[in-house]
Amino acid sequence: MAFERVCALSEVPANGSLRVELADADVAVVRFEGEVYAIEDLCSHAEVPLSEGEVEEFHDAPTIECYLHGSCFDLRTGEPTNLPATEPVPVYPVRVDGDDVLVDVDASVPAARN
């Protein structure tokens, strides 16, 4: 795993997200109820930045909502929790070291498909 510093934790709003443009991917770093997540910053349905959407609980899951059509994505798995999106988006391992948020974009966690 190749964790790299992507931002300061203090830059990520509580119950919100921050878009981070990296060489290999654009990532939404998200804080929700004290947890930090990293998800690809691109809706699989409409190809708009997820970081512009609301962060909330939806169907008992921490999610980020695509502002364009309302699909929510589980921050833990990348799976869509409602239509119109049907395809997951990559999520990435995250570590917080002091005020540094570290993400490993080379180790995306594929969503489990049944």
From TrEMBL:
One Pfam short name: Rieske
GO MF annotation list: 2 iron, 2 sulfur cluster binding; dioxygenase activity; metal ion binding; monooxygenase activity; oxidoreductase activity, acting on paired donors, with incorporation or reduction of molecular oxygen
Keywords, ordered alphabetically: 2Fe-2S, Dioxygenase, Iron, Iron-sulfur, Metal-binding, Oxidoreductase
Stretches assigned to the Rieske domain: 4-103
UniProt xrefs under PANTHER family: 3-PHENYLPROPIONATE_CINNAMIC ACID DIOXYGENASE FERREDOXIN SUBUNIT, FERREDOXIN-RELATED
Name by which UniProt lists this protein: 3-phenylpropionate/trans-cinnamate dioxygenase ferredoxin subunit
Species classification: Bacteria, Bacillati, Actinomycetota, Actinomycetes, Geodermatophilales
